[in-house]
Amino acid sequence: MIDVPWARKGSAFTLLFEQAALTLVREMPVNAAARIIEITDKRLWRIVDHYVGQAIEQFDLSDVKAVGLDETASKRGHNYVTVFIDMERRKEPVLFVTSGKGKQTVAEFSDFLKTHKGEPSVIQEAVCDMSPAFLAGIKERALRR
Question: Which residue pairs from 46-54 have beta carbons closer than 8 angstroms and sit at least 24 positions apart in sequence?
């Protein structure tokens, strides 16, 4: 294969196709979008992962001072994800999402914050339920003064 200006290097799709695919993914589940554009969900996830990764690399979290966090079940049973949001940002507040719940998720967020120009000790407010695991993680990671 040769590099062409209308396709991302290493991609088997044109930039216009990838843009259309991402537009669908914003509006519906990946499986449904993959059926519509007639590719496998695995190939569509590769496109999504590439562009989400690019966006995350550009995160500047240096001005984050108040975070909210909560866990939710991702499927029936005990498969949890924890979501961290910027309490001061009205548009696109989600900062970080990780699997699991409790103290370890706070540690993962703290590490993510540091790798994106943020500083846990600058966070003045953390809003969460009274879970002892969350509270311990917040205290250990200095997410509050």
Answer: 47/11, 47/13, 47/18, 47/21, 47/22, 48/22, 50/8, 50/11, 51/18, 51/22
The CA distance from 75 to 64, in Å, is: 30
pLDDT at 141 over 80: no
Which helix (H) or strand (E) segment holds residue 126: the answer is: strand 125-127
Tokens of 94: 């989600």
d(CA 48, CA 30): 9
Taking 60 as the threshold, does the pLDDT of residue 144 lie above it?
A: no
pTM of model > 0.90? no
Answer yes or no: are the C-beta atoms of 70 and 133 closer than 8 Å: no
CA quadruple 100, 101, 103, 106: dihedral positive or negative? positive
Residue given tokens 């103290």 in the structure block: 103
Sign of CA dihedral 116, 104, 77, 73: negative
